[in-house]
Amino acid sequence: NLTDRLADTFKNLRGKGKLSPADIDGTVREIRRALLEADVALEVVKDFTGRVRDRALGDEVSKSLNPAQQVVQIVNDELVAILGGEARRIQFAKTGPTVIMLAGLQGAGKTTLAGKLAKWLKSEGHTPMLVAADLQRPNAVTQLQVVGEQAGVAVYAPEPGNGKGDPVRVAKDAIKEANRKQYDVVIVDTAGRLGIDTEMMKQAANIRKAVDPDEVLFVIDAMIGQDAVTTARAFQDGVDFTGVVLSKLDGDTRGGAALSVASVTGRPILFASTGESLDDFEPFYPDRMASRILDLGDILTLIEQAQKNFDEEESLKIAEKFATDTFTLEDFLVQMQQLKNMGSIKNMLGMLPGAKGMREQLENFDESEITRTEAIIQSMTLQERRVPKLLNGSRRVRIARGSGTTVTEVNGLVNRFEQAAKMMKTVARGGTPQIPGMGPI
Ligand code: GDP
Ligand code: MG
Asked: Subunit details for this protein (predicted)?
């Protein structure tokens, strides 16, 4: 499978101090073959290996202490990028109920997903309602009712015996009902066909037009292989969607479809469905999927070490800057970004078998703090990052506004930075730091 193929490829690189262009070409060829075997679409593979090759031939690898590890890191980075980079969550409506419409082929897992999503939303404090707008299949309404009962949520369905009704009408009525009864999320299940056909697509598009959903989730069976791209494109043209849900990720598929769909449609993958029970469901994390594709402790170790080497080099540079008093907010930003990388490595570690307890702990790792700090520094001009003394009151107000934070937060960051720089300068020059409020130690 994909994971094994990639692992073999990287093993061959290990132990090589320096990589020749031929080594890199050989590796890229292997990655290409591995991805194609995993049913990743050809156009996606070409694009992907092209980027990996360019980066692998560049400075970051030739200057690295361990080029092979650096190549693994690049492959990982590019996988995360193709899978959408940052995880995206559901966008809720500002007023009135949030409408989520599901679309996809028959058997993709829409109805099951409706239940999973409802159960999960409920556990997050929402009051979801399911809507049976699949009036095509005889049992579709009953199936949704069963799922709704399992999830413990309300189901809006047309009157029994009225199964030949109009799904657009049902969906519209359901939203009125949700407004009346104050459900805050409405999940509209729709009909699918075995193949793509224009009538089904038209029906889905009509439902979309009628209910103006906040999210349209395209549900796709991860085992669908090479058809993933054609199917995804057809739905993008016919209905269009705001996000993707990968279902049946519990099989031994390693995500070939995931790579293709995310890359070809440019739409983020929001959730992964991993089994038949309603609890087999999770928000989708691009970095975890990348590490699932790259799996194996072996590779994780390589990545970790690449990270460590990089950090050591960076640390030396930073120490030098402290000593000479040239450490700036720009350097601070670089350090922040490194911390974030460490965060995604933690996620990877969490994927290892037997590390479940650890994974839970690691999930509490607060990356939002780093993100805020980053936003603040990025809202500064280069001048301000280099000469923080320039940061007077009005500049701080502007930065707070630009970064969506408060002046107090900007002040806090500048203070922390100044204290750290002062303390580190003393340490770097061999002195004893003065910790504020504690006197000399
Ligand atoms: P729909 O036609 O798109 O509504 O698909 P359904 O929700 O009815 O699912 C079709 C079949 O796939 C059912 O037998 C489900 O139990 C099964 N199924 C749905 N999601 C998953 C999943 O994540 N993993 C597995 N193994 N089976 C699933
Ligand atoms: Mg269904």
From this structure: Part of the signal recognition particle protein translocation system, which is composed of SRP and FtsY.
| Distance (Å, whole) CA 82 – CA 294 | 14
Closest CA to 9 of 63, 49, 51, 55: 49
Q: Is 279 in the pocket of ligand 1 (CB under 6 A)?
A: no
Structural domains in the chain, sorted by start: 2-85 (1.20.120.140), 98-284 (3.40.50.300), 324-440 (1.10.260.30)
Nearest-ligand number for the alpha carbon of 218: 1
User: 130 C-alpha vs ligand 2 centroid, how far in Å?
Assistant: 12
Are 253 and 223 in contact by the 8 Å Cβ rule? The answer is: yes
Beta strand residue intervals within 56-184, DSSP E: 98-103, 128-133, 154-156
* Ligand 1: centre distance to CA 223 (Å): 12
- Regarding the beta carbon of 116 and ligand 1, being less than 6 Å apart is answered no
Of 1, 50, 58, 5, nearest to 31 by C-alpha is 5
Can you give the pLDDT of all 441 residues of the chain as single tens digits?
Answer: 666 777 777 776 666 667 788 888 888 888 888 788 777 888 899 999 999 999 988 888 877 777 777 787 888 889 888 888 888 899 999 998 999 999 999 999 999 999 999 999 999 999 999 999 998 888 899 999 999 999 999 999 987 655 458 999 999 999 999 999 999 999 999 998 877 788 889 999 999 999 999 999 999 998 887 788 999 999 999 999 999 999 998 866 656 777 889 889 999 999 999 899 999 998 988 887 777 676 543 444 444 555 555 566 666 776 677 677 777 888 777 766 665 665 554 544 444 444 444 445 445 556 677 788 889 998 999 889 888 889 999 999 999 999 999 999 999 888 888 877 777 677 666 655 444 444 333
- The amino acid present at 281, given as its one-letter code, is F
CB-CB contact of 130 with 144 (8 Å): yes
270 lines ligand 1 (CB under 6 A): no
The interface predicted TM-score (ipTM) is 0.99
Torsion of CA 349, 351, 353, 354, to 10 degrees: 60
- Name the closest-CA residue to atom 5, ligand 1: 109
Q: Is the CB of 115 under 6 A from ligand 1?
A: no
Secondary structure class of 281 (helix, strand, coil): strand
